[in-house]
Amino acid sequence: MIYLKTEEEIELLRENNLLVSRTLAEVGRHIAPGVTTKELDTLAEDFIRSHGAVPAFLGYQGFPASLCISINEEVVHGIPSSKRVLREGDIVSVDCGTFMKGFVGDSAYTFAVGEVAEEVRQLMEVTKEALRKGTAQAKAGNRVGDISAAVQEYAESFGYGVVRELEGHGLGRKMHEAPGVPNYGARGRGPLLKQGMVICIEPMINMGTKAVVFERDGWTVTTRDRKPAAHFEYAVAVGKDGPDVLTDFSIIEQAINK
Predict the structure, then answer these.
(1) Is 95 annotated as a binding residue?
(2) Does the annotation place 233 within a ligand binding site?
(3) How do residues 171-220 score in pLDDT, each as one tens digit?
(4) Domains (ranges, CATH) in the chain?
(5) Residue 7, annotated ligand binder?
(6) Cα first-last separation, the chain
(7) Any known ligand binding at 176?
(8) pTM score
(9) What is the distance between the alpha carbons of residues 56 and 139, in angstroms, rounded to a whole number?
(10) Is 51 part of any known ligand binding site?
(11) Beta-carbon neighbour count of residue 148 at 10 Å?
């Protein structure tokens, strides 16, 4: 069942998602060669709790950390570790969630560690632009497939693989609500978008094949060909006249571009 949110509930979701953006900005400030993913996870948990929220991922279906941190060929759901050290030229997808005042925030951003190869930089920029193009379709009267097709068409125009096994989702009092929001599909298909729906749109785009592997730790998903993947995610309220993006990437980008 799809749960339509009131204006007041959307503002609570906005509050959560702005905290997620601020948390990702704080993490981004500390991303550098030699830093471990566990250090970033601890930083994020402390930051979230200091702002009156709790990490939404910690303990969710048994997940052991506050952040999903996925490096290079890891698409999503990487588990932070004191043994995992960032290196110059890596890209790092950080997915973060908060729970505060009865609602959830959820978004992701892919960071560069120092200087990355030009082809990898392009993958990141194309994935972010695919997110924007999908988000532009999040208006009442459209269908989920309009979002999905916009993401797929743009990413595939660069020859990239669009992950099939994972998708975006509704967001509210729970982390994952209806409807699912795939990153591939046909325009005019899927659930009707209505004012008051809140969804997470999250392209997961691979430099090579779309095929992925679910690793033996039960969480980490990697590209089958071991080429890099990028992941960006917005929380978006569907509006009558267009999308209301509850996530604010400008907070993150101001922090990392200082």
Answers:
(1) yes
(2) yes
(3) 999 999 999 999 999 999 999 999 999 999 999 999 999 999 999 999 99
(4) 5-255 (3.90.230.10)
(5) no
(6) 44
(7) yes
(8) 0.98
(9) 27
(10) no
(11) 27
